[in-house]
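Worked Example 4.2. Consider the chain below.
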Amino acid sequence: MTSSQLKPGKLKPGDTIGIVSPSSPVAFYCPNRLNRGIAALENMGFKVITGQHSRKRTGHTAGSLNNRLDDFHHMIRDPDVKAIIATIGGYNSHQLLEELDYSLISSHPKIIMGYSDITALLAGIHAKTNLITFMGPAIMPQFGEFGGLIDFTYHSFVRTLMKDTPIGMIDSSDHWTEEHLSWDIDDSRPRAIVPNTGMKILKPGHARGPILAANMGTILLLAGTPYLPSFEGKILCLEDDESEQPSTIDRYVTQFRQMGIFDQISGLIIGRFHSNVGFNEEDSLQELLQNATRGYDFPIIYDADFGHTDPMIVLPNGVEASLQANEERGILFSIEESAVQ
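Applying the procedure from the previous section yields the following structure tokens:
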């Protein structure tokens, strides 16, 4: 970690976690799922407060822009709040980036976590403040799971956010799930799981550098803005959701190439895609990535447990990691320092 980077304080039982809805109003539509996510945090020993507007709906967003900003800034200012976790993603969290008080955030460094559209906030805040931010579970999709966090996600949460020692080796989960259950209607049982064949090597090699993790389409929204982080030397971790298809993923990775991002990174890790995306032998992820990264020799692995997949690891933006990928030793992905202090 460079001396200019900010580490938030670690979480401990009894700490307060603040919940905000920076983007979609799903909490308005699925109150039981939100309440179950809150209960899961309380069962883990945390106190929980929710943003005044976190359950609100204004059209397609969770309250107005000012509502969402007020909730976020309130959680930053509140000295009792040690972590801020998003209810869910959406499409519009990047609206907040122009209005955020980055000096306030820098002077009150806290854990800020979510994924999907929330990675616009995570990336923008990291770019403007050097605060380590966290791509990880959200309240409704993961904490709101029947029975709380899946064990693999729970252990990653504890190891990353509650310990000030190096995070260490990142292994693949034994099982995973992509079963969809209708929230607040048909989600009163665990989802069906299937065996996980683990991370796979597309291009072998060795990489070392800080992690930068984001949803593909979301971080590309920041192109040409002051909120796009530096990619220099990063181990870039990218994923996207089940609404995409091979053609749109191809478009995204081509844009990364043409922006010169592949000239800058040290390694590339791709999160597991939902089967609805539609990759197959004729239209394969492997061929798409090989074409987009032609001429580059950094290591590439795919089918990693982060992003729109369950369970998931927590990835800290800005924390030093190493990646070794070869057929003899397999994949060794290690986060080599703590993400909190």
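The mean pLDDT is 97. The first strand starts at residue 16 and ends at 20. Compare this with Example 4.1 before moving on.
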